[in-house]
Design a protein that fits this description.
single chain, alpha+beta, 2 domains, 5-stranded antiparallel beta sheet, 2 helices, rod-shaped, membrane, Prot_inh_cystat_CS
Amino acid sequence: SILTSHTLTFPRIKFSKPLFLSHTKMALKFNRNLAGTLFSAVVIASFFFHASASLGGGKGGLLGGWSRITDTKDSKVVEIGKFAVDQYNEESKSEYKSKLVFKQVVKGETQVVAGTNYRLVISATDGGRRSRSGNKYLAEVWDKPWENFRNLTSFKKL
């Protein structure tokens, strides 16, 4: 007859353990390794974040947030303050206007964003007057030292 019975035979594969158990153990081992790697990465990142904040002379802080400057006599802070006054004098050149003379940084804060923004309250005297007490000015400077870039973004009398 045309219809004959054929028996198909497949080779038998022997597994020492049920297949789902070996996959489960492999997945658990992978997850343990992944968890260990992620934990290590978090610990290392946390260390570098705290180290960079403490090395900034108390000027470091949360990315994007403003942090108070604890040492207004820090050489970098004073340099930024002098830059702000010099830049203001340069931008407001006038034969009728006397230049400001930097005295000190009174207080300030920093913000870390693609560089560092400095918001400083500066004491400065009017170079043409004999005033001993300086007027106070609010200056904002954006600094990116790795690009040799520094810009006075705002300067106003308080």
